[in-house]
Amino acid sequence: MTHIQTLNTRDMAKSLENGGCGECQTSCQSACKTSCGIANQQCEKANED
Amino acid sequence: MIHQYQLNGYNLVLDVYSGSVHAVDALAYDAVALLDRGLPRAEVSAALQQKYAGRPEGAAAEVEDCLDALETLQKQGRLFSPDRYADHAFDFKNRSTVVKALCLHVAHTCNLNCSYCFAAQGKFHGKAGLMSFETGRQALDFLVANSGTRRNLEVDFFGGEPLLNFEVCKQLVAYARSIEKQHNKNFRFTLTTNGIGITDEVIEWANRECYNVVLSLDGRRETNDRFRKDITGQGSYDRIVPKFQKLVAARGGKGYYMRGTFTHYNPDFTNDLFHMADDLGFAELSMEPVVAAKGDPCALTEADKPILFDQYELLAKDMLRRERAGKPITFYHYMLDLAHGPCIYKRISGCGSGTEYMAVTPWGDLYPCHQFVGDPAYRLGDVWHGVTNTALRDEFKLCNVYARPACADCWARLYCSGGCAANALHATGDIHGIYEYGCDVFRKRIECALMMKAAEALDPTLAKAPAAAANDDCGGDCDTCPSEN
Lengths: 49, 485
Description:
Chain A is α+β, with helices and mostly antiparallel strands.
């Protein structure tokens, strides 16, 4: 019996090693302008892959 | 830290610090809750066997199998993972001094007179004015000079209504294009407009030069025209909708958002979103709760909150229905790319206001963001002399999720990065506070967005299902798959 299905997610702890380039979009520049959410920003490194 | 919840038939477990999301059965859902309370495995096993006695999953072997699977996830760092980021939150912000995004207020004036406008009808509680080309050029030079090795630089033409200063917008883009190669920069422009001033020339320019366009429309005619009126009191809907449709069609339907605001008068905001999708043909949608002072008739109330929560759930379920039908729509706050989303640095460094992101007034003054413009206490400097109020900048540098005591126990802290400093200031008088109403709404949206991701991964009737779920390592070298350690 399968009890757990794990979604495909980025490993946050691992991104500590290779993240932080700072090239991704500033959250407020996209659409909302009145609230802060960063989770929907795309990683620029992923876009280069 | 664990967050678990049930929505749309899914039992979901979020492991906050690894970012892992697990869709589990009832047995595993209960097991995680018991383990999270610190109970030893033997006690958890006994409790589960008792609760599920007489059912197949209550057999000792099944319970142990489930607990083994959870233990494996914990060893992989995907469950009950520790917080390893607090020190980095402060180190990272201390060494980050580059500016990479400017909100250019090219026009502190507007051709609409929306009473709910946080910018006080475009004048930001000050005088009206237009940015000169010289001031704008200096702002771009300031951005290039302070952007370090960052290649992608973002500039938003904002207001007021930026198209009231369209000639300067055009000149500034031409100037940016003339200098970007020599400085190894890539300017990405956004135009945020109310639509009144859109012409064929604007459409051609925006679709050639702007990476993103944000088109302000609140939804149904009666909703939009309740607030979005001109100075004679006439609603704007009939004038702007055809222009928006023409612009979006010419753009190929990409790189835009229809951006609406909902208020106490339309907590049933999904009807506005569905109107934009079904009746007007727009697929890229954003809808924000109004920012209004407590007591303002349009401000959202506590009584509105359960209505809003129902609306967000309804929206998520309907978006899945549309995906199944092959006619998906995008809602800005439900856009999550779990596999290739932001790294931990992005998630702990806050929105960047006052550090990597600043607003520029028509007269060249710098503010931490567009929402602080007009408050002299938050003036950072100007585009000629740079940031002169360095104490204020340093305060914003450390204004992240770890600097806000109220965020310490929040499971959504790595999705909002601490929230909006301006909203916190308006709600509590302190940029390190939180805007609780906004937090409640934010958490609901993330729960809905994560549920959609689970559905897309696991529901065979959704097209994305085969590719999205992955318990296995594909062998690639990105940081998406489980660690061996």
